[in-house]
């Protein structure tokens, strides 16, 4: 693949290849000196049309640790505010001869549209309600590390519960696809108004009762309410939401004894997850997710820019 637009475009062996490639960057990032020259001389543009803390910073750190020149374009300070179209913005970025462009956009499909207009690899950093592929990859890497710490070596049959605003969540969609590809059994839980009508077509088991969804879960992934995508339709009060769908210590007792708790961030503490769960040592891997995010983004940038450096693309290398 030239681009990374969706988990749906990847075969299982390609997902595993990216996870394996990321391990060398996990090791590098844990050293005192974190620098590599793997992408020296390349230019990476991060074009973010929506807010971000983790994804933008980790792509920036990833590019810099690989030795690339990294430039960030924030839509709020760009000529998008003067009415420039997405296509014209894409053609402008292309004319600057970037070697990779990382894009976050509020509209599903916008990243693919841009990828059709530029000559370099495009990485989707989250597009509307569609996909957030590097989030799912970093989550898989974080789960793999946590499983290995528990003496378990694989995802096969792993019982994962994803709870929250499934309807608007690109994180949920990418994670469902990624975890299923790796062999996990995925349950999703949401209030009826926040569950997509076609969810069963994704091969997951839907729940509205969070206690039932937690029963025996080995991984619990909590998502926030995406109020900004709701058009004022369904916004329960934080108190009401916590009562029915908040992850409390008491509720967590229904899950497996060595359960792994995750959240992609940003968290709303005291709403979808209580602080004493989010900060529970050995159970919560929320900060590990952030650490893995840098390594996964290093792996994705490295693998996708191989052709720009005259190195075999990953598909070609594996086909031999
Ligand atoms: N998980 C995630 O995408 O966080 P940001 O919105 O802060 O990038």
Automatic annotation (TrEMBL):
GO terms for molecular function: amino acid binding; aspartate carbamoyltransferase activity. Transmembrane segments: none annotated. Residues 2-144 form the Aspartate/ornithine carbamoyltransferase carbamoyl-P binding domain. Heterododecamer (2C3:3R2) of six catalytic PyrB chains organized as two trimers (C3), and six regulatory PyrI chains organized as three dimers (R2). Pathway: Pyrimidine metabolism; UMP biosynthesis via de novo pathway; (S)-dihydroorotate from bicarbonate: step 2/3. GO terms for biological process: 'de novo' pyrimidine nucleobase biosynthetic process; 'de novo' UMP biosynthetic process; amino acid metabolic process. Reversibly catalyzes the transfer of the carbamoyl group from carbamoyl phosphate (CP) to the N(epsilon) atom of ornithine (ORN) to produce L-citrulline. It catalyses: carbamoyl phosphate + L-aspartate = N-carbamoyl-L-aspartate + phosphate + H(+). Carbamoyl phosphate binds at residues 54-55, 104, 132, 135, 265-266. Keywords: Pyrimidine biosynthesis, Transferase. Belongs to the aspartate/ornithine carbamoyltransferase superfamily. ATCase family. InterPro entries: Asp/Orn_carbamoyltranf_P-bd (IPR006132), Asp/Orn_carbamoylTrfase (IPR006130), Asp/Orn_carbamoylTrfase_sf (IPR036901), Asp_carbamoyltransf (IPR002082), Asp_carbamoyltransf_Asp/Orn-bd (IPR006131). It is an enzyme of class 2 (transferase). L-aspartate binds at residues 82, 170, 224. This is Aspartate carbamoyltransferase. GO terms for cellular component: cytosol. It comes from Croceibacterium xixiisoli. Residues 157-303 form the Aspartate/ornithine carbamoyltransferase Asp/Orn-binding domain. Its EC number is 2.1.3.2.
């Amino acid at each position: 693949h030239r681009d990374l637009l969706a988990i749906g475009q990847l075969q299982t062996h390609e997902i595993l290849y990216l996870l394996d490639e990321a391990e060398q960057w996990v090791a590098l990032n844990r050293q005192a000196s974190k620098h590599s020259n793997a992408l020296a001389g390349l230019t990476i543009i991060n074009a973010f049309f929506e807010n971000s803390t983790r994804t933008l910073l980790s792509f920036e750190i990833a590019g810099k640790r690989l030795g690339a020149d990294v430039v960030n374009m924030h839509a709020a300070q760009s000529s998008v505010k003067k009415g420039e179209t997405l296509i014209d913005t894409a053609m402008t970025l292309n004319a600057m001869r970037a070697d990779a462009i990382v894009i976050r956009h509020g509209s599903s499909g916008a990243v693919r549209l841009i990828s059709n207009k530029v000559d370099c690899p495009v990485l989707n950093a989250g597009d509307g309600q569609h996909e957030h592929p590097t989030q799912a990859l970093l989550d898989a890497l974080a789960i793999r590390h946590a499983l290995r710490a528990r003496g378990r070596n694989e995802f096969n049959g792993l019982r994962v519960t994803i709870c929250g605003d499934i309807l608007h969540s690109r994180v949920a969609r990418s994670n469902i696809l990624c975890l299923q590809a790796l062999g996990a059994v995925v349950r999703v839980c949401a209030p009826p108004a926040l569950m997509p009508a076609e969810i069963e077509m994704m091969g997951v088991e839907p729940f509205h009762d969070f206690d039932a969804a937690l029963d025996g879960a080995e991984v619990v992934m909590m998502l926030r309410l995406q109020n900004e995508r709701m058009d004022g339709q369904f916004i329960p009060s934080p108190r009401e939401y916590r009562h029915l769908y908040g992850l409390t210590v008491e509720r967590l007792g229904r899950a497996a004894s060595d359960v792994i708790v995750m959240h992609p961030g940003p968290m709303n503490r005291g709403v979808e997850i209580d602080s004493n769960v989010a900060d529970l040592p050995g159970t919560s891997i929320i900060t590990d997710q952030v650490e893995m995010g840098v390594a996964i983004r290093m792996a994705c940038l490295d693998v996708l820019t191989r052709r720009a450096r005259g190195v075999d693309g990953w598909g070609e290398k594996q086909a031999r």
